[in-house]
Each structure stands twice: as structure tokens, then as C-alpha cells.
Amino acid sequence: YLIDDDLRARLFDRFGREIGFDAGRILQADDKALLAIAEKGGMRPADRVERWREIARLVLADGGGDLEGKL
Q: Is 6 helix (H, G, I), strand (E, B) or coil?
């Protein structure tokens, strides 16, 4: 099920404040910190955490850590 736009925005802001959007920071983030955010965002939070980490790995491997520049 999808979460509403207000909750999505709050969780996005929280992710930015607590983890940051830098791929290296996402990979180094504490599992519990990522899971705490993911649990507020709907079903299968552990899967979401793994996807976040996989995206971060791809950004580092394929984009040298600069997703915006790669796009």
C-alpha cells in the first residue's frame, strides 16, 4: 500500500537529516537507523533498506558517487 504524500515528504526529510543522500553515507549508515525510517514507510522495510544500499552501491560503482552528474 502506498503512503500518503505528507508522510512520504516527512520521511524523505528525515532521511536527509539523519542519513543524508550521499551514497557513501547510506552505505555506512547504521542498519537500525535505516530500518527505523523504512518501518514508517510501509510494507517490507528490510527489503527497502537493502534496495537503498544497492542503489548507493550502484551510484558509487557506476557514477563515482555522483548520481546527478551521471544522469
A: helix
pTM over cut 0.70: yes
The CA distance from 20 to 62, in Å, is 20
Q: 20-33 pLDDT, tens per residue? A: 999 999 999 999 99
Nearest CA among 33, 36, 71, 35 for reference residue 51? 35
Question: What's the Cα-to-Cα distance from 43 to each of 31, 53, 55, rounded to whole Å?
Answer: 17, 17, 19
Q: HSE-up of 62 (CA within 13 Å, CB side)? A: 10
C-alpha 1/C-alpha 20 separation (Å) is 25
- Quote the cell numbers at residue 28: 555506512
